[in-house]
Amino acid sequence: MLGEYRIVGRRASEIAASIEHAVGSGDLEPGQLLPPMRELATELGVNPNTVAAAYRTLRERGVIETAGRRGSRVRPRPASTARGAIRVEAPPGVRDLGEGNPDPSLLPPLHEALAAAARHHAEQPGLYGQSPLDADFARLAREAMDADGVPAGPLAATSGSLDAIERVLTAHLKPGDAVAVEDPGWGSLLDLVSALGLRPLPVALDDEGPLPDAVERALAAGARAIVVTDRAQNPTGAAVSRERAHHLRSVLGRFPHAVLIEDDHGHAIVEQPLHPLAGVSDHWAFVRSTAKAYGPDLRVAVLTGDAVTVDRVLGRQSLGPGWVSRLLQCAVAELWRSDAVDPLAVARAYGARRDALVEALARRGVEAHGRSGMNVWVPVPDETGAVARLLNAGWAVAPGARFRMSAPPGVRLTVSGLAPSDIEPLAEAVASASGPLPVRSYG
Length: 443
What we know:
By secondary structure, the protein is α/β, with parallel strands linked by helices. The chain has 15 helices and 16 strands. It is about 40% helix and about 15% strand. The strands form five sheets. It has a seven-stranded mixed beta sheet, with helices on both faces. Strands 13-16-15 form a three-stranded antiparallel beta sheet, with helices on one face.
């Protein structure tokens, strides 16, 4: 069963450490069946309860999983190589459309906002024991969410969307629990779910967001949480419509114990209105990042949710980083207050590039998706071949493998750096690299 490896130890902690060391070194591989508890107890000369305690510790750490009479097996390891590493490096002379960054020319200058935060700090220094939230940041964030129909709830500041999602997942779930995630979806989120020892359950989507039937199947299969991107879905550009939100709330209402996490990272760069899903789940969280509209390096997002969820997030945060820099919160509040970004103008700038590319591809018989945000998703029959041919034509794109679980192959193109003169040559290159496909949902 274990080959040449021998588990050792007399105490539960020693047995658990022996197995965990073997998993880390590769002596025990993912999927490998462990000895039944009584058999291992006899071999080690210990009480079966000791082995049971060791196995329980390993399950809690996400090292093994137990499936009733089928026994305990080594879990698949968390991703040691992030999906972001599945990329195509753009050599000199090749245009890079794969990084997913916003257009720097559409980001506001930060010097005035940072200077205002520094002046505020000089008058009221940030010290230990103060509120983790800057008062203006909290007030302006809440006003904006109220205007968008996000349910009332306490607030927290996090270091970006992914930080917020991780804190909510760990506040409610344990290793081995299942999480429903969009497929194709944000590669960093898929990495995070695996790294936390959670099981991702793929949910297919179309231009209007997750498909209700797919969501219901995932929740019925035992997903204890679901993560939904409200707008500017990465990589497809999907945006949850009013009608889709109605259907999704109906499904979520039948599974109220599943934690709902909404990611609105597209705020201030999209024209599509927000149709929040919160209000039917016992535990929910809504996170809004400043990265795409104000700059990725700000590392600030605002989180709201039910009282239990936010309290758990704040409690755990206080034992780690303590809080997100109030200097940065103050700078973001200054950016919001000064209208440093014209959301409509930014949304139209991205929309013009995105729509022009989708239309140019459609004229060539190529299916493409990009309802909102800064990305266009193109299904292709041969992902590796399409990426290679595009690179040879002078365009580096993001391989769909970064974003897919069971969804068909595709490539992601970020339109942020495109000029009007780029659209036709790029569309021609994509058409040559991919070929026409029948219209379908992504999953």
